[in-house]
Amino acid sequence: MKRTWYYQATAAEGPFSQTEMEHLIANGIIDGFTNVRATTGGPWMPAKDTDAFHTAFSAAAFDALPCQRRRKHKLSLRVFLYVICFIVNLLVVILLLISVGQLANLAMLSLALLFFGRLAL
């Protein structure tokens, strides 16, 4: 008889085959501290303490390390790009406000020349 497994999240989940449990471990749904139990009964125990999943956790830990490093790098790169975009947008807004201010000054100057130029005549 094939052994099936349950894991304990908020409630008991299962039954799962050995292969399905290894996929759950590889995808990070089950970690080493998740309680598991075979259908043959017995107590709940942390998955890392079972002989059945020892190799699955070794492979999952090996695969997870480079991904975590890459993910951390991508996050910092993403934050850097957001900061650069924010600074560029802020400079554009400042330049637009300055140019609007200069246009307003030119308009006021031309109106002043128009009115005061006629008054002087």
UniProtKB/TrEMBL annotation:
Residue ranges spanning the membrane: these are: 79-97
What's in the keyword line of the UniProt record? Membrane, Transmembrane, Transmembrane helix
Domain of life per record: Bacteria
Tell me what this protein is called: GYF domain-containing protein
* Species this protein is from: Paenibacillus oleatilyticus
